[in-house]
Specification:
347 residues; alpha/beta; Rossmann fold; seven-stranded parallel sheet; six-stranded parallel sheet
Length: 347
């Protein structure tokens, strides 16, 4: 079986990170793959080392000819059985359909959020990363039998904790970690406000984005700048999770959020705002704590409960690990994709 992937994402981001992790897991399971992506996509060397052929294209909004030619050449050279389009920009490049006997491949459109179905023409199947996203795809007009849910994964390597002194953080202080793009929808301003009334707690925020100047300014205004460390974009998420005491996920809007399962996989207690994705999978008091969106006092109280309560912390760590093992391991994801691919090819 040969699968050609198209991914036109940003230099960094959760969907982009997951795409690479998924391709690596599928390659390790014996699926032959090629990826066409933008030159700035991170970790391309990891894919090449694993045996995935990588080609690059611009994926422009207006000037589309170069990417179309790259796709048609890849189809000619690689002769894929499946073409999988990661997000709407990539899906918009799907070639005009031919009878399956002539084109020789099936098209799959991947949804990491509530994307517009109009960009996914000529698809033989659709994959949503949550049950609610799959519902959205069906509601937008896709045939129900063509819609599948395949969850994202957390495939974290074993990693030693980072020395806290590297970021001027006391060893004995409760350490909160947020892994998020610095964007208004991520609710990091609410986390900073919650930190005001968590004396002694420190917070590391790993990510980049449009609020990279505004959030440090807010921390200074709130008087917590001496306890907040902005780490920028990091590729050592496993080490960061190994170092922290609590993983905090305060997003206002989140279709799913890989941070949820990364915290579960790393054995760290999770405190999350009840955006659509976390609210669908986090069971309050069982595998994490859920708080209302935009509620700094509630976020503060939940974090304080985890810091103070050994029994509660142990309970949600155990529950989170069980949730991860049942739905979000690489083995579960690979089996689901193999079933989908084989089912499509059998018609």
């Amino acid at each position: 079986m040969k699968v050609l992937h198209l991914m036109a994402g940003a230099p960094t981001g959760g969907a982009e990170t997951y795409c690479v992790d998924a391709l690596l897991a599928l390659q390790n399971a014996g699926v032959r793959q090629m990826l066409i992506t933008r030159p700035h996509t991170q970790r391309l060397d990891d894919l090449r080392t694993a045996g995935v052929e990588v080609r690059t294209a611009p994926f422009g909004k207006i000037f589309r000819g170069a990417t179309r030619r790259a796709l048609m050449q890849a189809i000619k050279d690689f002769k894929p059985d499946i073409i999988q389009y990661w997000m709407g920009r990539a899906a918009s490049y799907a070639p005009v359909p031919l009878p399956i006997g002539e084109r020789g491949f099936k098209n799959i459109g991947w949804f990491g959020g509530y994307y517009d179905l109009k960009r996914y023409r000529y698809m033989d199947a659709y994959v949503g990363v949550t049950y609610d996203i799959a519902r959205h795809i069906r509601a937008a007009g896709a045939a129900p039998e063509k819609v599948f849910t395949i969850h994202t994964i957390a495939d974290l390597p074993a990693a030693a904790p980072i020395a806290r002194a590297e970021f001027d953080t006391p060893d004995g202080a409760p350490l909160l970690l947020a892994l998020a793009r610095l964007h208004p929808k991520k609710g990091l301003d609410i986390l900073l406000r919650a930190l005001v009334d968590l004396p002694g707690a420190y917070c590391w925020i790993a990510g980049d984005g449009p609020l990279k100047d505004e959030l440090p300014k807010l921390a200074r205004e709130l008087g917590v700048a001496d306890r907040v460390r902005f780490l920028g974009w990091r590729n050592d998420r496993a080490a960061l999770l190994a170092t922290c005491d609590v993983c905090v996920f305060p997003s206002r809007y989140e279709p799913f959020g890989t941070v949820t399962i990364e915290a579960w996989a790393a054995g760290k207690p999770l405190v999350a705002a009840a955006a659509a994705g976390p609210a669908a999978y986090v069971k309050d008091g069982e595998n994490g704590l859920l708080v209302p969106i935009d509620d700094a006092p509630a976020l503060r109280d939940a974090i304080a409960r985890v810091i103070r309560g050994n029994a509660l912390r142990g309970q949600i760590i155990t529950g989170g690990r069980a949730s991860y093992q049942s739905q979000f391991t690489p083995a579960v994801m690979v089996a689901a994709y193999q079933d989908l691919y084989q089912g499509l090819l059998k018609g």
